[in-house]
Design brief:
single chain, 715 residues, alpha+beta, 5-stranded mixed sheet, 27 strands
């Protein structure tokens, strides 16, 4: 007999599903009841001719009995089970967990990709592969899908929710989703497939990953201490992204259940409390095979679907590699509405608007979100392989709208990717002296003792990487912090940077991200994981941190931030050099006119230069950043004109022209004149000189910068 589930357990379940006793099967196949009992207990196997009669008795084909990789069609058919209303009259008008997140595909990508990372099969060293498929259905394809999900069964429930929509927030969303499907004749499916992941293992009802996702709320069963999730809320984003509240699931298991691993299928529907034909329903419903062990065989459990069924449900997977496919039915993305309007204008200009504007906008936002939050997990180097591969594709009725696009971390975050690879390759430096280098500095995270005890458990050396910024990075001068699963947790700027620093990007690796052999790496993972809110987008005071450590434990994280900022400032500060065009020699060439003694003024106090930084650019121009101290009192300060002059030993000082003059903070530049922001205490501006106005080579000159009241005067 071919490999599959053991014959005995398989046959026992088929008899339950068909509501057939061992005696009835014995009569149907013309054997004794003792023979059937022997098959079920594994003491014997039926003869080939008997197997044919068993197939007939179970109303199935011979191949199903031989392979035993799916259930027969005997017994109760697959259908929807709706949880009855509570006997005490309690009502849930929606799943509260879903309100923890916005209906945003960017949030969905962050949460689902984090879950896939947490379930990666690390033993083989390969990354987890996650693919997002947007698929818009219209016409016959939409009709066939509605038939597959038994829409006629669900229709009364959706109508009841729509009638009460004005009183329920969830009801309004569902009502809009149903109207969109029928009025516009379309439905958007969003499928998330992961491969090389554990899959939804475990029993339908007992403790396990299947129950944690499908049956329960606020339960998180993660595979390791470096996992990203901890609240059990991330799965709620799947249902929050569905305007119909429906998610279908097909899982290939890494550990067999009931002797099988492929095509374990179930669906879950999240609707508000409703009243239909005199009967109340609590909220959730499940699509599955009726469980013969439940009272009245009403509760739906997962079933082992055949290939035809998963094709009809748009749940077919590419391979038998372990992992799970989640199909969000009626996917919507509120956050992309404004952005998609801009896309429409662009489409109209090139004549390419084919009605796929919304799914194209969602495609782009998924790619952006994956690159922004998971660039580090997708980066490898040295002996370290990437933890993650992601891609996005978009279809319409099975036809390609946008080809599968693999997310490249070097496109999304070129500077930070360079920094992380340098760390993995061991090519970092102590100081930044040339473009493209990556500087490394360790910063201490002093871990507290648990249980409110005073003292320090140990010091974990977090790794700080700093490198030059590139335009494609987005906002510069930021620190991206991450831990074991390499998802970006915290993004923060660095306060109090010195004037004139070159734009940079920084990466902070903490916990196992700093290296599994780093001292106290696991303890740092546990501590920081407890310091994250459900969004996992920062580290700070949380209830779990207070309960497990102390109410002051978050001060350790604040100290880490202080240490990081100090290290960044030290690394990006201009080095002191004894020669060349920079350093001390360059500073001597820059002069700020100052009065030898203060004088009383009868008129208003004028703004004055308080700090300067300058360098010589690649074309020989002076590049100047200046800070202006603004006096107290009065909202209106006089306009001032910055004038740059060459310092000479005798005669008048030649004036240089500005090639560029821009405001940075506390002021505006208009026709070369500075106008200051009311009530500002300081202003910063930046400029570069016009090389054509230089009478001599820049390196041979000394510079004087003056602030003159009004529009200034010719020098």
């Amino acid at each position: 007999m071919e490999a599959g589930e053991d014959f005995g357990p398989w046959l026992a379940r088929q008899l339950k599903l068909a509501r057939m006793t061992q005696t009835q099967l014995a009569l149907a196949v013309d054997v004794t009841r003792a023979a059937v009992s022997a098959w079920i207990t594994g003491r014997a196997t039926p003869r080939p001719e008997t197997i044919e009669r068993i197939a007939q008795a179970l109303n199935t084909d011979l191949a199903t009995v031989h392979t035993r990789t799916t259930d027969t069609l005997a017994g109760l058919p697959v259908g929807w089970y709706h949880r009855p209303g509570h006997a005490d009259g309690g009502r849930e008008l929606g799943n509260a967990a879903a309100f923890a997140f916005d209906a945003d595909v960017g949030v969905l990508a962050r949460e689902t990709c984090q879950n896939s990372l947490d379930e990666r099969l690390a033993e083989n060293g390969r990354p987890v592969r996650v693919r997002y498929t947007l698929h818009e259905l219209t016409g016959e394809a939409l009709g066939a899908f509605r038939k597959a999900i038994l829409w006629d069964e669900l229709h009364p429930h959706y109508m009841a929710v729509s009638k009460a929509a004005s009183q329920q927030k969830v009801g309004r969303v569902v009502d809009a989703g149903v109207r969109d499907m029928f009025e516009k004749g379309r439905l958007v499916l969003l499928r998330i497939d992961d491969y090389n992941a554990s899959g939804l293992t475990g029993d339908d009802y007992g403790d396990g990953k299947f129950s944690a996702v499908v049956r329960r709320q606020l339960e998180s069963l993660k595979s390791g201490r470096g996992a990203g999730g901890s609240y059990g809320l991330g799965k709620a984003t799947l249902w929050a992204t569905s305007a119909l509240g429906m998610v279908l699931i097909n899982s290939t298991l890494s550990v067999p259940h009931e002797g099988r691993t492929e095509r374990r299928v179930i669906g879950r529907l999240e609707l508000p409390w409703r009243f239909i034909e005199g009967r109340p329903y609590a909220g959730p419903a499940w699509l599955g095979r009726p469980d013969p062990d439940s009272p009245g065989a009403e509760v739906a459990r997962s079933w082992w679907a055949d290939e035809e069924m998963v094709e009809r449900l748009h749940l077919a997977r590419d391979s038998d590699e372990p992992g799970t496919s989640f199909l969000i039915v009626g996917a919507h993305d509120v956050a992309s509405l404004d952005q998609s309007t801009l896309d429409l204008d662009a489409d109209e200009e090139d004549g390419s608007d084919d009605g796929t504007r919304d799914i194209r906008a969602m495609h782009r936002r998924l790619v952006e979100a994956l690159g922004r939050d998971f660039w580090a997990a997708m980066t490898g180097g040295g002996s370290r392989l990437p933890l993650l591969e992601t891609s996005v594709r978009t279809l319409r009725n099975g036809e390609v709208v946008i080809e599968e696009e693999k997310v490249d971390p070097t496109d999304a975050q070129p500077s930070r990717t360079r920094a992380l690879r340098a760390f993995y390759d061991g090519t970092t430096v102590d100081r930044l002296t040339e473009a493209g280098q990556v500087a490394l500095r360790t910063v201490p995270l002093r871990l507290p003792l648990s249980g409110g005890r005073r003292g320090t458990l140990g010091t974990h050396p977090a790794v700080l990487l700093v490198t030059d910024a590139e335009d494609a990075d987005g906002t510069s001068n930021q620190v991206h912090s991450l831990r074991g699963n390499r998802m970006t947790i915290k993004k923060s700027g660095v306060a109090g940077l010195p004037l004139g620093v070159n734009a940079f990007q920084a990466v902070l690796l903490v916990g196992q991200a700093a290296g599994e052999s780093a001292p106290f790496a696991e303890e740092a993972e546990e501590f920081l994981r407890a310091a994250e809110p459900p969004e996992h987008d920062r580290w700070g005071q949380t209830e779990e941190l207070t309960l497990r450590w102390s109410h002051t434990a978050h001060h350790r994280i604040a100290r880490l931030t202080t240490e990081v900022n100090a290290a960044v400032k030290d690394l990006v500060a201009r080095p002191k050099r004894s020669g060349g065009q920079g350093g001390a020699k360059l500073r001597k060439a820059l002069t700020v006119p100052r009065k030898t003694a203060p004088r009383r003024h009868s008129g208003p106090v004028l703004p004055e230069l308080d700090g300067l930084d300058a360098s010589i650019g690649a074309s020989g121009e002076w590049q100047i950043t200046a800070e202006v101290k603004l006096p107290r009192g009065g909202d209106e300060l006089p306009a001032m004109t910055p004038v740059v002059l060459l310092d000479v030993r005798s005669g008048s000082r030649p004036k240089l022209d500005w090639a560029e003059l821009v405001a940075v903070e506390g002021c505006e530049v208009e026709d070369g004149v500075l106008r200051f922001t009311p009530r500002a205490r300081r202003a910063i501006f930046r400029g570069s000189t016009d090389v054509a106005s230089h009478p001599v080579r820049t390196a041979l000159t000394r510079l004087v910068l003056e602030l003159r009241a009004g529009k200034g005067s010719e020098a």
